[in-house]
Design a protein that fits this description.
This is Mobile element transfer. By secondary structure, this protein is of the alpha+beta class. It has one domain (1-46). The chain is 16% helix and 39% strand. It is built from 1 helix and 4 strands. Strands 1-2-3-4 form a 4-stranded antiparallel β-sheet, with helices on one face.
Length: 62
């Protein structure tokens, strides 16, 4: 069963989207996910700055 996440405060940096959500324990979490076809990059972070840094430095291999 997949987790239901309601994303808020979304930002797009190139092909990468950064968003904030609450995890299962009610903590603020931040994610960065690449939307380019065939890339598959996504990662969760505890700080917004880390997620935005990952989005700015991400380079697609696809």
């Amino acid at each position: 069963m997949s987790a239901y996440r309601r994303f808020r405060d979304r930002l797009r940096i190139g092909p990468v989207q950064v968003a904030t959500y609450y995890d299962a324990r009610g903590r603020d979490m931040h994610t960065a996910a690449c939307t380019a076809p065939g890339c598959g990059f996504s990662a969760d972070y505890t700080s917004r700055a880390a997620a935005e840094l990952a989005a700015r430095t991400h380079r697609c291999k696809a």
